[in-house]
């Protein structure tokens, strides 16, 4: 896949004859200097956007060790130790916040960090190279697939996600904030709880997250088929609906109770109310197996019968 689809006809045939320079009026020089930044920004915005698949090509960081080394990861340890011949895997929905959303999230995390005193809060928003990181909603626990399992797992997951009753792409919005203690490690995560904004207005029938629950059911079934533990095993609809979240920071252990209570109220503050109005577009589910990321698009299954019939006729 080409990174950017520029025409190859813009060739070097013109290199030997650079365009003639034009003399600018005296008044234009000052105007150019004053508006230089704006002109540069306009020029950048004219570039075609990178395709969504570009993010999947560079979804992994460079490995600097062949063994698990917590000192390379801020003291973190794998919940599932790495074994030769096994592929660390994860199923999730990916979200790339806009520049303005990223900036507000950074301010939001910094404000909460100030409530924790000596306990360090590690943001999950920016890489070591100071570039924004994608965020995600998990649809599986950390998985460990054998080489013999990984192709079958991806095939089954693709079929299951395609048949999930989501009605095609949908939207999510942040609905709350809090700390979540990981059952698999000693870390606590600062999370934004997410829900379908339309379903949240009338959650009496289908709950607040009908699409996420449908996807989770499919993903858990595939995981258990390959001897993996399911995610969110609670049977009550309301408990599962409130479990879906986006992690934005972490700390070792839960913060003091008073800090947690203050955190719960942060989205009510005027400067952070806009976060609840954000919409996260969900058009597919991603499966990361080792360093390979595969996007599985959602489809509207209301037309699935006719589509399947057409396929059989072909």
From TrEMBL:
Its EC number is 3.1.4.-. One of its GO terms (molecular function) is lyase activity. The active site is at 136 (proton donor/acceptor), 245 (proton donor/acceptor). InterPro entries: Usb1 (IPR027521). It is found in: Nucleus. GO terms for biological process: U6 snRNA 3'-end processing. One of its GO terms (cellular component) is nucleus. Pfam families: HVSL. Keywords: Hydrolase, Lyase, Nuclease, Nucleus. Residues 1-14 have a biased composition (Polar residues). The keyword Transcription regulation does not apply. Belongs to the 2H phosphoesterase superfamily. USB1 family. Phosphodiesterase responsible for the U6 snRNA 3' end processing. Acts as an exoribonuclease (RNase) responsible for trimming the poly(U) tract of the last nucleotides in the pre-U6 snRNA molecule, leading to the formation of mature U6 snRNA. This is U6 snRNA phosphodiesterase. The lineage of its organism: Eukaryota, Fungi, Dikarya, Ascomycota, Pezizomycotina. The gene is USB1.
